[in-house]
Amino acid sequence: MSNLNIKAFVFDAYGTLFDVHSVIEKCNEFFPHKGEEISQVWRQKQLEYSFLRQLMGTYTTFFSITKDALHYACVQVGVDLTDEKEKVLLDAYLELTHYEEVESVLGELTSHQTAIFSNGSLDMLSPLVEQSSFGSLLDEVLTVDEVKQFKPTPMAYQLVLKKLGVKREEVLFMSSNPWDIAGAANFGFHTAWINRQDKVMDELGVKPDFVYSDLNGILEHKS
User: Catalytic residue positions?
Assistant: First the structure.
C-alpha cells in the first residue's frame, strides 16, 4: 500500500489507455504490407506537429494535426491517399482498441476521481471513450483544447487542478509517453510511467516516481 495521498488518478489517452497502432490493420487493408510503417510515421509526426505548433504559436486541434500527420505519412511511405481512404483512416482513430487491463483497473478506482487528460480534442476523445467499455468509469475527459496549450507545457497540466479541484501532490498521472511523464513530473504531479514497450526514459532532468509495464501496478496507490 502506498503512503501517497492520491485523490485523482489521471490518465493520458493515446498509448496509455488506447493502442494507437490498432490502426495498422486498417492501413494494411488499403496499403498492403505498409500499414506498420504508415502507423509509425503517422504517430511520430502527430507528436512532432503538436510540439512544433506549440513552439510556433500556431495552435490547431489535435484532429487537424492527426489529419496533417496522416498526409505526411502517406507521402513519406509513397502511397496515394484518396479522400475516401483518409476518412476511413481518421475514423479508425475514433475506434482504437483499449489495452486489456484498462476496464478492470478503472473498476478498482471508483472511490477516487478518475480522468483522461489528453492532447486530443473532444471531437476525437468523446467518440473514442463512448465506444469503449469503460466510459462510465471515468469522472472527466479533459482536453488541452480548452486552454489551447499542448502538453508538456505547464499551463496545460494546470487544467487538471482547475477541473478536478485537487492539489498537484494529490494527482497520480499515468502516461506511456516519456515526454508526457517528464512534463507532468516537472509540473509537480506524482507520475507513473506505463512503459508498455520497454523503452528508455528521456533525459530531461526529471524521472517518473514509478514505472510499470501496464496499469495494474498503479493499484498499489489506491487507499
Answer: 12
